[in-house]
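Recap for those who missed Tuesday's class. We walked through two folding examples back to back. For each one, the amino acid string is listed first and its predicted structure tokens come directly after. Nothing is annotated here on purpose, so try labeling regions yourself before you check the end of the notes.
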Amino acid sequence: MKPKKEVTIYDIAQKLELSSATVSRALKNHPAINKNTKKKIQDAAKELGYRHNTFASNLRKQKTNTIGVIVHELNSNFITSVLAGIEKVTTQAGYDLIIAHSSESFEKESANALNLFHKRVDGLIASLAFDTQGLDHYKYFYDRAIPVIFFDRVEEDSESTKVIIDNYKCGYQATQHLIDQGCKRIVLVTASLKRNVYAQRHKGYTDALFDNNIPFNKDYVLIKDLSEQCGIEAALEILKMKPLPDGAFITNDFSAAVCMQTLKEHGINIPDDIAVVGFNNDAIGKIVEPQLTTIDYPGMDMGEIAARNLINHLKGISNIKHTQTIVIRSDLVIRKSSLKKKGHH
């Protein structure tokens, strides 16, 4: 698809039969312009895909050598390592990064996408918020043939280019490992099932139970936001369950560590009373006692792969249109928190 020609204020003026000075003022939110006219002009600008020109000098080159990154949180070990991977590749290729942060809000993510579009990024790397639905808010980029690559949290059934791990397989493996340790009452602590990563881990969990003839119990599925508070809440809910669950798969290491800590404070022995498996292979898993069994999720690789595909596309070496899904490896890392059967490694 050939990128459309850059829309100017003259195009908007022509469409609305107004002077370009009026259009220019309205787009700068000038108080002299009447509200209705302003709205009409802003709507037309949106419809035509106008980007305000913050880089007049770069306009002739049409390149800003910047890449936008949208992440859903910043305080995660995993996201930090993805950013390190992206940064490593983009720096070598001479690109700057602009990082925006949606704090798990669809609304903020949409605003960030539009903002990065106006900043004229050459390409975009994004991971979706908990409640994001659809990808319409990335339409500006697609219309202009600006490449977008999604990582980790993606819309699975879209045609977008995405870099993911096999969350279904990981959910299955983690649950199967707990079953192999003799667990029969396994709690799953996870986040919004609207999001692909959690929905797939949940499916892996339910399928592993099914394949081992263990009945699924919906009371054992705790949907949380995977924060510190969530780890405490999950532990308190687990403690109320009669009989006590004998296994827990918590799809985030930080929450798992906090949950384990809280259970221990209430006299629960890990792994003898409850075996625990986390997710992400965050550093915290090696600090908690006992050390946490987890899924190694190579964030650095994920960032590098996403960035490399984007840069190669921008350099014309390859076309991301031809690559829809890149699945990177992830493995179960077994430590003491899940080993009920001594001597198994």
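Example two. Treat it independently of the first, because the proteins are unrelated.
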Amino acid sequence: MSGFIKLSSGTTKEYWEIPILFQDEHLLALDKPSRLLSSPDRYDPQRPNLTRLLQDAIRRGVPWVREQGITYLANAHRLDFETSGVILLAKDKPTLVALANLFGSEKPLKTYLALVHGRPAQGEFEVESKLGFHPTKVGQVRVDPKRGKKARTHFEVMEEFRGYTLLQCRPATGRTHQIRVHLQSVQLPLVGDSLYGGRPLLLSNLKTNYHLKEGAEEKPLMQRAALHAAALCLVHPVHGNSLTVSAPWPKDLLVAVKYLRRYAGQQGTSTGARAGARDEPR
């Protein structure tokens, strides 16, 4: 489904034009941009977030709200601040309750793309480690076998490069920072994820004889943690039919993979990579 919703923050003067991925009378799926909170920050409630921006748009009756007759929107799950991709919202409270039950039962299938440092030993692997919030580092999660909550993630190699791997990730549970911490725990940190050991992806580290203009500062190919919510599959909470919502690769991931292929060599590709071939860089 085409179309956009337009949101703005008067406080920070930021503006977002967010693509609509799916919409019917009960659901709205958006392609959340990176560096936008999906829900209020427990440590800084004043930061712009998708939930509050949507509520403000409904309260003010902006054009797209009036045109679509929207009176209620609430997100059924969360994405991290730097994570882009599919986020699902309910257009009424009964649908929100039904979605909460679905996500609580671990039935929806989420698929993420992750660009990581290193190379796994196998083409497919699973991490099952209990997770809990760090006792002294605010906002950070760690593997906690004694007090943590169960968490399981399936990983599959999509493409390998020298020093980097593109993974498909399917979390079976929905713990905070689950994919990021599970990857850190097996020494495959996300590119750009400084909180969990990831380093920036720099073209100067890939390209031989790289030259930067005098006085210029090199910017990473991805200026965030390299994680994208690519697809969400679930049973429609009202109609009961199977529903799959997909988000195209974001521009920064397309650029990163393009340069990795050019300068870090394509080592091999699993069958899973071809499923999203139309969205891959050329």
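Answers for example two:
The longest strand covers residues 14-23.
The chain has two domains: 1-105, 108-282.
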